[in-house]
Every structure is written in structure tokens, then in C-alpha cells.
Predict the structure.
Amino acid sequence: MTANPSILLTGGAGFIGSHTCLALCAAGFEPVILDNFSNSSPAVLERLQRLRGQAVVCERGDVGDTALVQTVIERHGIAAVIHFAGFKAVGESVAKPLKYYANNLGGMVSLLQGMDAAGCRTLVFSSSATVYGDPASVPITEDFPRSHTNPYGHSKLVGEDIMAAMRIANPAWRMGVLRYFNPVGAHPSGLIGEDPLGIPDNLMPYVTQVAVGQRPHLNVYGNDYATPDGTGVRDYIHVQDLAAGHVAAVQALLGRGESFTVNLGTGRGHSVLEVVHAFEQNSGRPVPYQIAPRRPGDVAQCYANPALAHRLLGWQAHHTLDDMCADAWRWQSQNPSGYR
Ligand code: NAD
Ligand code: UD1
């Protein structure tokens, strides 16, 4: 490995990309962001500069522009790419499937073409626990059968398959598939965090907006699941742990060089009501809630067996649910309107 290898982060201005950007800097890498700001704000760049003490290079553009991808890789001497860029709203993907297939799969194909043309064949991909569909049991290991229930999930599953096909075609590709469970929390500085546009779909950003007074109450989607308190159980993982997982993935690919697919989760499940109570304790704010009908497509329980990531990457999550709530609250209370 050369000193300070440059890593391209497609979608690096987003929630997970921005935290990974700082983790890469701390580990001695030079991040280069490629983002079209379709779901993020350029204001994040100024925050990253403050936290790093130095500007982060950002190329504004679309990963669907293959020539641009090739140019950016060659211009910056990119050693590896982390592919975050994509759309992620499950409900919207059901209403607008082509928007999701075009950006998530068209983006993947374009990226691979640009990387191939530039001779850069080391890639880490943001996949999701959504590829396990409704798991037959928990905890989930990587060899569980994959399925999908919506176009977003389908795009992640096919994205993984496209990568596998490329490895068969040319074994020089080194690829890491990271299946994230439920990323939450924020940088402990409170300067960067999750900034959803409109009404949040996901639990933690909804809870923080209720706590800050932007929404009257949380709807808890179902309390009749076969779980200890009847509410859905998920594997919430601090975005700082997730960012560290990306650093470990890049180090493994640039070092040992073997491709892998791993879960990034804590291995612990927490119910919706556990999250609500932990958030109240860590924020000192009430989170009023009402029990609402189940959300279509939700599963009762979903949590990881993260042992393979520990074995292959030497990575494991360290932050607790209290850390996740405290950091999410610091970000939300210091930035009630996000980056706007
Ligand atoms: P995000 O929306 O905050 O970040 C995605 C970034 O990609 C945004 O900055 C957006 O502007 C950019 N982008 C989108 N399309 C682009 C394109 N065509 N060209 C260039 N930039 C583009 O999302 P996130 O939460 O940081 O998620 C990152 C990745 O992780 C996504 O692929 C998502 O599907 C995946 N993922 C996220 C979660 C989660 O809960 N956040 C869970 C599992 C997987
Ligand atoms: C959702 C997506 C999944 C995606 C993941 C990360 C669905 C069906 N799945 O997972 O594909 O990878 O986000 O972005 O959308 N909840 C409430 N009230 C709310 C919001 C959520 O009770 O207002 C509950 C849900 O029923 C669930 C838990 O909180 O039990 C977590 O929900 P959420 O944050 O949306 O994540 P997932 O459904 O696990």
C-alpha cells in the first residue's frame, strides 16, 4: 500500500458516507467524494472541513456519468471505491420503481464500467439487511437465503449479483459487500448526522423529530408481534461503528485482497419501545407515542450474527443503544433543521 491511498466515496456527502469520510481520514486515507447532492447538502463539506481541519475533495456529479467516473478515478489516482450513492426510501421505490432501478442499478453498472476503464478494480458496496427479506430465524448469518419485497430491496440484491458476475468475468476484481442492519446515531461532535428530506420513514429520525417538537407523536407500527413487548425488533448500529467497518473493509481488500460479503450489525436486537425509552432517558425529553397498525412489509425481528465480519475484518461494533440515542439527540438538538 502506498502512503495515504485515495478512496473514492460515491454518495460520500450522505449520512453514512460523511461519517465514513472522517473515519478514512483518521485511518490515513485520502477521501474523494463524488456526489450529485440529490439527497444531501453541500453544507456537509464545510462541516467535514471543520472536523478534519482540512478541506475534503469533492467532485460534484452523477455516478451514472461513466466518463466522469473514469476521469475522477484517474485524476485522483483512486485505489478503491466505496459505493454509497443510491436512493433508499422503500415506500418511494414501490411507487416509483424505475427511479430506483435507474439510479441504483444504472449507477452500479456505470460505476463498474468507469472503474474498469480506469483500471481500478477494488470496490466496497453498501448493501442492506433488506436482502434477507423475512428471515426464517434470527440471528441472521450471511448464508441465509436472499429475497426481496420491494424495488429498493431488489436493487440491492441485483447489485450484489452484478458484482459477483464481474468477479467471475475477471478475478482481478476485489469486492466487499457490506450488509448494513439499521444505521442510526451521529458523529459525537453533533456537527454531522442524518438529515432526511420530508417526513422520515425510519424510526430513529422520527423519534428525534418528535423529541425536538417538530412532530406531535410517534406511531408505533404494531404491538402484536411475537417479540418480548410486541413491537418490532431491529439491530440498530451506530453510524460511527459502521464507518469503522468501511475502513476495515478497505484495509482488507487493499491488503489481503480476498472478496467477502459480511453483515455489519451489533448482534443485539432492540424493540421500538426500548428505543423510545432509551431515547427519553438520553435526551431528557418525552417521546409521546401511539400504537398504530402494523406497517405493510415489516418483519417481527431482524438482527445480525456479526461473527464473520469480526473474523474476516477484525471489526466489531462497540457503541450501545444509549450512545446511539445520545449522539442522535446531540445532532438533532444542535441542528433542528438539519443542514438547512
Ligand atoms: P443518503 O441518501 O444519506 O446518501 C446517499 C448519497 O448518494 C446522497 O448524498 C445522494 O446525494 C447521493 N447520490 C444518490 N444518487 C446519486 C448519483 N446517481 N450520483 C451521485 N450521488 C448520488 O443515504 P445513506 O443513508 O448514507 O445510505 C448510503 C447507502 O447505504 C445507500 O446505498 C443506501 O441504500 C445504503 N443503506 C442505507 C441504510 C440506511 O438505513 N441509511 C441501510 C442499508 C443500506
Ligand atoms: C427499513 C427498510 C429497509 C431498509 C432500512 C434502512 C422497510 C420495510 N424496510 O428497515 O429496507 O434497509 O429501513 O433504511 O421499510 N417504526 C415505527 N414507527 C415509525 C418508524 C418505524 O414503529 O415511525 C418501527 C418499524 O415498524 C420497525 C422499526 O421501527 O419495527 C424500525 O423501522 P425502520 O427504521 O423503518 O427500519 P426497518 O423497517 O428495519
